[in-house]
Amino acid sequence: MLDPKDIGEWQHEEFYRFIAQAYDKPRYILHYKTDAPLNIRSIFYVPEQKPSMFDISRELGSSVALYSRKILIQTKAADILPKWLRFLRAAVFKKAFSCCRKLRDVLQKRLIKFFIDQSKKDPEKYAKFFEEYGVFMREGIVTIAEQDVKVTTRLDTHPAMITVLEMGAARHFLRMQQLAKTQEERAQLLQPTLEINTGHALIKKLNELRDSQPDLAQLLLDQMQKRN
């Protein structure tokens, strides 16, 4: 894959039209290369054309072409980007197969940072983009609701704690755009992890109640999460 500085505007336009099967030009271009934590070579395009109702539909498939060792593996790789970024037209090149979840997280964080940078670089241009594509951003906040649960050895006297991975760009994005109005929406985007102390009496009791009284177990778990 060519170095970003070696690719001209007309080449980007031609490649965008090829992978997007479109006739407009890209309004934003992100050429992202990194060797850590994963070896990734990627190009992302935001279409100049305003999204249609079909584009907004969640039934629309991925528009990410996935390459490995210069071989096209998938023309529409569904797991490379989260659903809310489906408006992007992109090509991702990686030397070896890796965890899709980790790849998705790395790309999502980089794209969030890219949009923050663009909003500072040219506020007027970004405002027009947000006016037309803001629906996708809002969707991202309200639909990223997954929460991991894992056993921890970091707790002694407490039954559980909630941790959030380092996502400085995402936090800044929330503050700047004021998209997440509620505590629940902010938590959803930051993807918290519930870490439990399996040696604690409360966790042991919850495990017993899970089968005998599942409703009560869920109620207790909800209260734990609120307290954390």
TrEMBL record:
It comes from the Eukaryota. Pfam families: HSP90 (PF00183). GO terms for molecular function: ATP binding; ATP hydrolysis activity; ATP-dependent protein folding chaperone; unfolded protein binding. Keywords: ATP-binding, Chaperone, Nucleotide-binding, Stress response. Belongs to the heat shock protein 90 family. This is Heat shock protein 75 mitochondrial.
